[in-house]
Specification:
Blueprint (H helix, E strand, L loop, with lengths): L1 E8 L2 E8 L12 E5 L2 E5 L5 E11 L4 E9 L5 E5 L4 E6 L7 E10 L4 E10 L8 E12 L2 E12 L9 E2 L8 E5 L2 E5 L5 E11 L7 E7 L6 E4 L13 E3 L7 E10 L8 E10 L2 E3 L8 E8 L1
Parallel strand pairs: 4-12, 11-13, 15-23
Antiparallel strand pairs: 1-2, 3-5, 4-5, 5-10, 6-9, 6-11, 7-10, 8-9, 11-12, 14-16, 15-16, 16-20, 17-19, 17-21, 18-20, 21-22, 21-23
Length: 301
């Protein structure tokens, strides 16, 4: 039996049909939508910027389990994880572009519900008085049972001065690193071995993106071992013996190399220290390579 009722609405009449005894409605198909705000970054301790992007994922149809989250990073901003560690196995995804990362979110979102993420970003930019907007990035979500949904966003690098209309942020195209080091000071351990320490300071004159800094040391006694203080394993010998964290524009990073040897070091021996920016495990050509190397001498106490 069909019962028909009429409901008056502003501007006209709308007919409403009520089906009595009809078959139950088919359950909604799973679907996702995603929304974002602006990734707001503020000056960070040690240089550069750090901040977060709020992301809300909604299940607009039925329940959804297991979500793929693809983050297309804006130029000059780097994905630094999710605040609560929710995004897993984030890997580069070339089909999105050179700045795309594909992550997995192991959650079930109930129909009509939502799930929130706080996606962290950093930048190597040097703080300026005027705030700056980055280029566009995007967050795309999908699952095995849904189509994709994409939301676009920008990063806002908060300036240190009064609020004015933000400028456009464009990172440099090439790194400009400089290194100073030394002296290397060794002590006799009294058991046929020697231990040394070598301070190394790296500065960056541009904000060109890089993943890490490769550091080489030549002139050490044969068979010497080297590690960066604070790192759990030693450096591997080769063209880039050690790895250092990246350095923001205008900042400096000082690290201590710990050296051990079964061969007696010779006071006055010259050591050569070199650095290079690395991106995608490849050397990234420096804009001013003349100060990418330095020399120092060995002291023996």
């Amino acid at each position: 039996m069909i019962r028909i009722s009429r409901v008056l609405a502003v501007g006209g009449a709308v007919a409403a049909l009520t089906l009595v005894g009809a078959a139950p409605a088919v359950a909604s198909q799973p679907a996702l939508s995603v929304g974002t705000g602006t990734a707001v970054l503020t000056p960070a301790t040690g240089g550069g910027y750090a901040g977060q992007l709020a992301v809300r994922i909604r299940a607009t149809g039925g329940d959804v389990s297991g979500v793929t989250v693809v983050i297309d990073q804006p130029e000059g901003l780097r994905f630094a994880g999710e605040r609560d560690g929710q995004l897993q196995t984030c890997v580069r995804t070339p089909n999105v572009g050179p700045r795309g990362l594909e992550c997995y979110l192991a959650v079930t979102i109930a129909a009509g519900g939502h799930h929130d993420l706080a996606v962290a970003f950093t930048s190597l930019a040097q703080p300026q008085r005027r705030s700056r907007f980055s280029g566009e990035g995007a967050v795309t979500v999908s699952s095995a049972t849904t189509a994709t949904s994409t939301a676009r966003f920008r990063g806002l690098l908060i300036g240190t001065g009064p609020g004015v209309d933000p400028a456009v942020y464009r990172p440099a195209s090439a790194p400009d690193l400089a290194v100073t080091a030394g002296p290397a000071t060794f002590v006799d351990n009294g058991d046929g071995s020697w231990t040394g320490q070598l301070p190394v300071t790296v500065t960056a004159a541009t904000d060109a993106e890089h993943d890490e800094i490769g550091l080489s040391v030549t002139g050490l006694p044969p068979g010497s071992g080297v590690r960066v203080e604070g790192q759990p394993i030693g450096c591997m010998y080769g063209e880039w013996a050690c790895r250092l964290d990246r350095v923001a524009q205008g900042a400096r990073r000082t690290s201590t190399l710990v050296i051990w040897s079964d061969q007696p070091p010779v006071a006055g021996t010259e050591l050569t220290i070199g650095v290079t920016a690395m991106r995608g495990l490849q050397p990234f050509a420096d804009a001013n390579p003349v100060d990418n190397t330095t020399t120092t001498t060995v002291n023996v106490n």
